[in-house]
Specification:
The complex is a heterodimer of chains A (about 260) and B (about 260). Chain A is an alpha/beta fold and about 260 residues long. Chain A has nine helices and eleven strands.
């Protein structure tokens, strides 16, 4: 499969992604440690895909990066500065998060979904927020559906609205938490294309995914996690073609 | 058929009903509605406060909300109405004058707020956690997220339960007569009761009952209608649409290829 950007790069938005670094990050739910001493560097404008079996702590890692769940140890650096010294809300508006189940606001139209945080967080005027929301919807190919409620959109369209909603805040880093896992198979590619386009245009992305084709072709770096630890990381070619650890070999033999 | 005549004379004396009808409409119905609607509105405001406190992460907000709810839900309505109505009579006299009417409304509001608080809490907690997380991930504060996204969804879900609560309040409003209302302040039950005592006939109370039913029965059916609509969700069925159409609408032009071809 090839991934094509839905927007020509030349007149699309260009993003200024920041660097992201995890240093010895550990996270726990109560007494249960689900992430153990994870260190990871994501260079500005690059894409890192995280793969691994369920329960390996991939989603938890993303939640730690924007402090939806507080890390128990370690640090996260956004553009070189620790996020733990900053207010969670101000960190979160610089980091976009896309969920597996979209989490669109059901009683808002697509446009209102995108505009809400612009109004509430960025304190934009209604006209400005609407203009930017419309631009972002156009970017994800949904300008014509601006007035639709989520329930009147397909899963793929909903996820594209969710991406537009995150992009509208002009994030420096985008996190994707299994963004295509809940989609019908024929709609997966549309969302992956959109993500590939973002990667091309300079966004820093941390992508938890089960789409091995996407990870192989779009990622600059692939990280394999299991039982809360990073087991193996490197260039996609190395990981997929020459996996060293038995765990990754086993995992790849199950999913490929 | 002596017993049938007695029965009709006791319960269905239209002459007695007709005589009390103007009072029933002009005084009784008006006051029942004023008391019930006022108590419901105040109960909704207080109930929202109790609900928000009840789901707070701080136990110093949660515990008082819990205790408040337990007390006002656990006591018989008549006990609360008497305690508030007579206990605060002096205080009320300085603020509202001699009528116990405002205290009756207050007591009903407190009872209602305990129930409505639970209704709101259940509704808000039934909203998918992802809604709050999506808001927080965008940088919105907890308060903004609740106010703009979570609470409106929760409230919409419990509208049927709120209407049920209003029906309960309409019925409970008859209890404020215990506080001794002025003639012009009497609600449906009291108007019927007075006329029944005066005529030695129960027909005015039957008429009062009919008035209650005129308020409550249509509302009950409104609830069922709401319930149906919320459960089935869709307003009009849309014809099925092929996912492949969507794939086509998204086809980029000109296509830019990324990564190696395979």
């Amino acid at each position: 499969m090839t991934y094509t950007s839905p927007v020509p790069i030349t007149d699309g938005h260009v993003y200024a992604g920041s660097s992201l670094e995890l240093r010895g990050l550990s996270m726990a739910y109560g007494d249960i440690e689900v992430l153990r001493d994870v260190s990871l560097e994501v260079a500005p404008g690059t894409t890192t895909c995280i793969i691994g079996p369920s329960g390996s702590g991939k989603s938890t890692l993303l939640r730690g990066v924007n402090r939806l769940h507080e890390p128990s140890r370690g640090d996260v650096l956004l553009a070189g500065r620790s996020i733990l010294d900053q207010k969670p809300d101000s960190v979160r508006r610089r980091i976009g998060l896309v969920f597996q189940h979209f989490n669109l606001f059901p009683d808002h139209t697509a446009l209102e979904n995108v505009a809400l945080a612009l109004r509430n967080v960025k304190r934009m005027s209604k006209a400005n927020a609407t203009r930017i929301a419309m631009e972002r919807l156009t970017e994800v190919g949904l300008a014509e559906r601006a007035d639709h409620r989520p329930r009147d959109l397909s899963g793929g369209q909903q996820q594209r609205v969710a991406i537009a909603r995150a992009l509208a805040m002009e994030p420096e880093v985008m996190l994707f938490d299994e963004a295509t896992s809940a989609l019908d198979p024929e709609l997966v590619k549309g969302v992956l294309n959109l993500m590939a386009g973002l990667a091309q245009r300079g966004m820093t992305m941390l992508v938890v995914t089960h789409e091995m084709g996407f990870a192989r072709k779009v990622a600059d770096q692939v990280v394999f996690m299991d039982e809360g630890r990073v087991v193996e990381q490197g260039a996609p070619g190395d990981l997929f073609d020459r996996p060293r650890s038995p765990r990754l070999q086993r995992f790849l033999s199950e999913v490929l | 058929m002596d017993w049938l005549d007695t029965l009709v004379a006791t319960f269905l004396d239209f002459e007695a009903m007709w005589q009390v009808f103007p009072q029933m409409l002009g005084t009784g119905l008006v006051n029942t509605l004023v008391i019930s609607i006022a108590a419901t509105l105040i109960g909704i405001v207080l109930g929202m406060v109790v609900a928000i406190m009840g789901i707070s992460r701080s136990r110093w907000l949660r515990i008082p909300a819990r205790v408040y709810t337990d007390i006002f839900r656990g006591l018989p309505a008549i006990l609360t109405i008497l305690l508030i109505g007579q206990g605060f009579a002096r205080l009320s006299q300085q603020v509202f004058g001699p009528s116990p009417y405002p205290l009756g409304i207050l007591a009903l509001s407190l009872i209602a707020s305990a129930y409505i608080g639970e209704i709101f809490r259940a509704g808000i907690q039934s909203v998918d956690r992802g809604q709050l997380e999506a808001c927080r991930a965008l940088g919105m504060s907890y308060g903004s997220a609740m106010r703009l996204v979570v609470v409106p969804q929760g409230v919409r879900r419990v509208l049927p339960a709120l209407v049920n609560q209003f029906i309960a309040i309409v019925k409970d409003s008859s209890l404020v007569y215990f506080l001794g209302l002025l003639v012009s302040e009497r609600e449906l039950f009291r108007v019927g009761q007075d006329a029944a005592v005066l005529t030695g006939n129960l027909s005015p109370l039957v008429l009062a009952g009919l008035f209650y039913l005129v308020i409550t029965v249509p509302l009950t059916h409104l609830v069922n209608y709401f319930d149906d609509r919320f459960r089935t969700g869709r307003r009009t069925a849309a014809p099925p649409k092929s996912g492949l159409d969507e794939v086509e609408e998204q086809t980029p032009s000109p296509a830019l290829t990324y990564g190696e071809n395979s």
